[in-house]
Amino acid sequence: MQKKVLVVHDLSGVGKVALTVTLPILATLGFESCVLPTALLSTHTGGLGANTYLDLTEEMKKIIAHWKSLDLKFDAIYTGYLGNPKQIDLVIDTIDTMTASQCPVIIDPVMADSGKLYRGFQPDYPAKMRKLCEKATVIIPNLTEAALLLEEPFQTGPYTKDYIEDLLKRLGQLGPKKIILTGVYFDEFEIGAASFDVETNRINYALDKKMIGHYFGTGDIFASIVTGSVLSGKDIHTASEIAVRFIHDAISKTLQQKQDPKFGVCFETELPKLLKIII
Length: 279
Fold this sequence. Notes:
globular; 9 helices; kinase; PM/HMP-P_kinase-1; alpha/beta; 38% helix; pyridoxal kinase
């Protein structure tokens, strides 16, 4: 039976981020996506001018109420951008009341990067996100988000394996069974992710060539591929390796086609390869 995945994320009219990358990736891998949108933006927030922003918290309440009246249940939940603490509460309630037994919950705690919270988030937001991460099967923070979840100062890289592995193990103490830490690098040549399975105590690294520049939406692509991979039966270490390689190839295609990276990366033509790898 086709798995029904609840995707909780924002929607940008222009820019390949959030829902505009998650939905095609999950569809390619054979999953039915049910969408709970958290915000509507004219464009994503990176380098495209003064975007519009519509908070959908009140609409989320109505959507969830309708779903409950239908007695809907989801086989998995993947969450990305949540615009305020009220939205986190709504997601926690949804996890508690509208999920099937043993439902995988994949949390990308979208809230910060480069050592600081994203625009619009208050200092108390990480504590609320920590409560959501306690519900997770898998969390996928970057280095800044990991520091915020652990209530400690952000450290710049390059990193050491001792530091990364200490972060992973302490994140595991928050409650999730599996952790994938993104933006990990030990030198200026490679970058990728570190994964930790609490139950097996295994740590793995997935690194690839570091590409010059900033590429919007790659974090959402990474989390979406991890979600699809895990739901397809892959372990988190394999899922991380697949996601890192896919993003490297998508960035390479973007550079080859001389596309403006502000609008996202050329991931679409790589989807058939992803299907062959995962299914």
